[in-house]
Design a protein that fits this description.
11 helices, 6-stranded antiparallel barrel, alpha/beta, 6-stranded parallel beta sheet, 32% helix
């Protein structure tokens, strides 16, 4: 997959494309449906493109901050696995936000990317003040000779699947959030050195740092799985600050991978969190911690 950010994305030119437009925070069931439809265009010889933004529009326009379900790096990994040809993280600035819907379509989508088909959600808005909608996009499609495919919102358990809904549920209703995501919530980041305590108690672990910009579920112990190369391993993960062995308040992800031995330091690994087991606890000593880890693994194996 070609992955371009900011200025490089703004300079990239191609032709005969099918494009999915959106923020794609979470890449949930609705997004996956959109992407699957777009990928069918490969049969017509078209290049599939995801057009999104490197900067959060909310942050740029309001000056506030908003954490993301998946980081840019994680989304790039996801889109590549999905089979997308090109990922463009276009530079979103106040100047860009001020252009009209037609300017955006003409300059960025038609002239720069040679679009033939566009895929969006039915509530898609674009251009200055979000003045463009699907109706406007279809009118521009007639003018510039491209098709527009607008997909209805997907619902689950009577609720519209959306990044907003997932954000609301991630901490308190993790199982429901995972259902809307369509695939388990995951972390994709580099394995870093920890305290190496796991080796001394018989449960070697990998440590992954979390971006401060990443939205996380509640701290605690999770049943998980880890993808290493083309193999998937069952795992048990602790999302939190490890209170038994450190006084740090920095939240990280520490994972014991079952039936695996090897050196992963410096490697990028995907760790999925399947379901919540228990809160993070501070134990009296490492022996008590060791006994609890055994219980956690037993529970995980009984339910996975």
């Amino acid at each position: 997959m070609i992955y371009l950010q900011d200025e490089e994305a703004g300079k990239f030119h191609t032709s005969n494309t099918a494009i999915a437009l959106g923020k794609f925070d979470g890449i949930h069931l609705g997004h996956q449906m959109l992407l699957s439809r777009m990928l069918e265009e490969k049969k017509k010889g078209r290049t599939t493109v995801v057009f999104t933004f490197g900067s959060n529009p909310f942050t740029v326009l309001s000056g506030g901050s908003q954490k993301v379900i998946y980081t840019a790096e994680e989304k790039a990994y996801y889109f590549s696995e999905f089979g997308v040809d090109v990922l463009l993280e276009y530079p979103f600035t106040k100047e860009f936000a001020s252009i009209s819907p037609e300017e955006f379509v003409r300059d960025c989508i038609v002239e720069q990317l040679g679009v033939r088909s566009i895929y969006v959600g039915e509530d898609f808005h674009f251009g200055k003040g979000r003045s463009g909608n699907v109706g406007v996009l279809k009118e521009l499609g007639e003018q510039y000779y491209f098709e527009v495919h607008d997909l209805q919102k997907k619902t689950l358990h009577g609720r519209v699947v959306s990044s907003t809904a997932i954000r609301d549920m991630l901490e308190t209703k993790f199982h429901a959030a995972n259902e809307m995501l369509g695939n388990p919530y995951f972390v994709y980041s580099q394995v870093v050195h920890g305290m190496h305590l796991g080796n001394t108690i018989g449960f070697p672990t990998i440590n992954q740092e979390l971006s401060p910009n990443k939205l996380t579920p509640r701290t605690g112990v999770y049943a998980g799985r880890v993808t290493i190369g083309d193999k998937v391993y069952k795992a048990i993960s602790n999302l939190g600050v490890k209170p038994t062995v450190t006084d740090s308040h920095h939240v990280g992800l520490e994972t014991h991978i079952l039936d695996y031995s090897g050196d992963l330091y410096g490697e990028y690994v995907k760790t999925e969190l399947l379901f919540y087991i228990r809160p993070e606890e501070k134990f009296n000593d490492v022996n008590e911690l060791k006994r609890q880890i055994k219980d956690d693994i037993r529970m995980m194996l009984e339910n996975v």
